[in-house]
Specification:
- With about 325 residues, the protein is an alpha+beta fold.
- The protein has helices spanning about 15-25, 45-50, 80-90, 115-120, 140-145, 160-165, 165-180, 180-185, 225-240, 250-260, 275-290, 300-310, and strands spanning about 5, 35, 50-60, 65, 100-105, 130-135, 185-190, 200-205, 215, 220, 295-300.
- A 6-stranded antiparallel beta sheet has the order 1-4-5-8-9-10, covered by helices on one side.
- Helix 6 (about 160-165) packs across helix 7, helix 7 (about 165-180) packs antiparallel against helix 9 and helix 10 crosses helix 11 (about 275-290).
- The termini are far apart.
């Protein structure tokens, strides 16, 4: 029986995964880059993707915890993990009305390690990124309102052509596409930050998507943590950054390293296909074997370098 202070979600992880994956591809249409899901079949994508940054995502549904009453000061001799989350957030004056949280998955019967650790090993900025993504809503009606709110396509079909001439306007338009989408703003994104030897850990956070804690317990540094902030940072690094633009070969190198570390047997990973094809093949295998989804941030190197030149001039 669930404790009375637990607030259950009306959403499912598969539903969240499908909606977020589709949304990311949809709201990158007509931009100078694309977010490609592993299941998308886009003709000629490998020829256009001379810049490729994988984003590996484990989708979670959030649950909620009502705040610990002020009179409950004394710790019980035996206290469950959810109760310790409530106590830690109250004692450290973190937002807790309510606290949202999700737990790690137990190790599968034939797995070589915890899913969390496998996700962690894919987090290699700037070659690849790995995050947990979970809604900041528990109610399915509010979730669907966000899904259908906001402009994913601009009404004026000429604005992108004007943006090519006015680089600063284009720069801000591309960033704001992600920064102000309600659906993306109402998801948390948390990069796995330390290796575990048990699944009995929780990430907890406020309903506004900040003040992240890890139980442990500790406070996770950094932020902001919303999915809109994460996507805005990825776009800013690509179109306005000064660092290297990662190639499919660099992204594939992360896959080969992880496969070697875990002794994964992945037919086709070292085939004679292009690096981009092998990268997507790895993503499909990873999703099937470990339920970690691969989204590829793709662009043409020459176009992005031209945009960078205009932005920085």
């Amino acid at each position: 029986m669930s404790p009375s202070y637990l607030l259950k979600s009306q959403l499912s992880e598969k539903q969240i995964e499908a909606d977020v994956s589709f949304y990311l591809g949809w709201c990158s249409n007509e931009m100078p880059f694309r977010l490609l899901d592993i299941d998308e079949q886009e003709t000629g994508a490998d020829k256009l993707s001379t810049v490729t940054v994988p984003i590996y995502i484990q989708f979670k549904k959030s649950q909620g915890l009502q705040p610990l009453p002020p009179e409950q000061r004394k710790r019980r001799v035996v206290e469950d993990k959810m109760q310790s989350v409530r106590r830690f957030r109250r004692d450290n004056m973190l937002s807790d009305d309510p606290t949202l949280f999700f737990g790690l998955r137990a190790m599968a019967e034939h797995a070589s390690d915890f899913q969390h650790n496998i996700l962690l090993d894919h987090h290699r900025p700037e070659s690849s990124h790995a995050i947990y993504v979970a809604p900041l809503h528990l109610d399915k009606e509010r979730y669907f309102v966000d899904l259908l709110t906001g402009k994913r396509h601009l009404d004026d079909p000429w604005i992108w052509k004007r943006a090519e001439l006015l680089s600063d306007v284009g720069h801000r338009a591309w960033l704001s596409r992600y920064a102000f989408q309600p659906f993306l703003r109402n998801h948390i994104s948390i990069a796995p930050h330390e290796r575990v030897s048990t699944h009995r850990h929780f990430y907890a956070f406020s309903a506004s998507g900040d003040e992240v804690s890890w139980h442990s317990p500790s406070v996770v540094p950094g932020g902001p943590f919303r999915l809109s902030d994460f996507m805005t940072s990825r776009v800013r690094q690509m179109i306005a950054g000064t660092g290297d633009l990662p190639s499919p070969e660099q992204a594939l190198g992360v896959c080969e390293y992880v496969a070697e570390q875990y002794n994964f047997d992945i037919p086709g990973l070292r085939s004679s296909g292009t690096a981009f094809d092998r990268l997507r093949h790895y993503g499909r295998w990873l999703h099937k074997a470990h339920d970690i989804r691969q989204i590829l941030l793709c662009a043409d190197r020459e176009k992005i370098e031209a945009i960078r030149e205009r932005v920085l001039s």
